[in-house]
Amino acid sequence: CFDLGFSCEKCDFETDLCKPLHELNLQPGWIRRNGRSAMGPPYSDHNGNDSAYFLSLSSQMRSSSATLRTNVFLPTDEEHVCQITFHYWISQMNGTLMVGIHKHSEDTITNIWQVSGELQNQWKANTVTINSTEKYEV
């Protein structure tokens, strides 16, 4: 769920890709699948639904990295904070999942959250809160 101020946009991949991840089709490595796809775990989404869709790294990407990039978000302020809640599954000991922010005046991506080195084999959830005085992408 992408929570921007008073609006909340769910991103569930059921019919297509959600609006915040419009550039997904340009990012190699990610595939849209469900638990019935015979690709190994997870065998359902975070609600236990085996026919619900989620994004997964393709098996060819095991040793490299892949990026998801959001649309451009407007600056935040005291009344309009940005919170992004996401569910994730790690099935490799050497995998690292990172969330970063790319402000438009900067050339680099600042890491704001990461998890690695845990073979969890279960869905977990995390929420990041973003404050930025300028336009940004996550």
Automatic annotation (TrEMBL):
Ranges where the MAM domain occurs: 9-138
Pfam family, one: MAM
GO cellular component, one term: membrane
InterPro entries referenced in this protein's UniProt entry, alphabetically: ConA-like_dom_sf (IPR013320), MAM_dom (IPR000998), MAM_domain-containing (IPR051560)
Transmembrane segments: none
Entries under PROSITE patterns matching the protein: MAM_2
UniProt-recorded name of the protein: MALR1 protein
Organism for this UniProt entry: Ardeotis kori
Organism taxonomic ancestry: Eukaryota, Metazoa, Chordata, Craniata, Vertebrata
Gene: Malrd1_4
